[in-house]
Amino acid sequence: MISIGDYAFNGCRNLTSINIEKFGLLEALGASPFSTGCRIESIFLSWHLNRVADETFHDFNVANLYVDKYEPQHGSLTQLPKSTPFISPMIPVKI
């Protein structure tokens, strides 16, 4: 997946967390992909994300937004067992 388009998850009321870092090649977020009715508590943005539309976070209410400031080491995310807690050099962002 290279991009998430405009209004992709618009109105998804059961969506509570998004980890874009898992989509290592995600480059772009369209306009308002998480707006209107989403109950997202946390979102993790990938180090590889380089295009964000002007209205990406329009009408978007989130408690925790994290931006990865470091490129992950090769294979560091895919080799973790499912029971291992996820630890990443993320920085919290106030919006």
UniProtKB/TrEMBL annotation:
Entries under Pfam families matching the protein: LRR_5
InterPro entries per UniProt: LRR_5, LRR_dom_sf
Gene3D superfamilies per UniProt: Ribonuclease Inhibitor (3.80.10.10)
The protein, known as: Leucine-rich repeat domain-containing protein
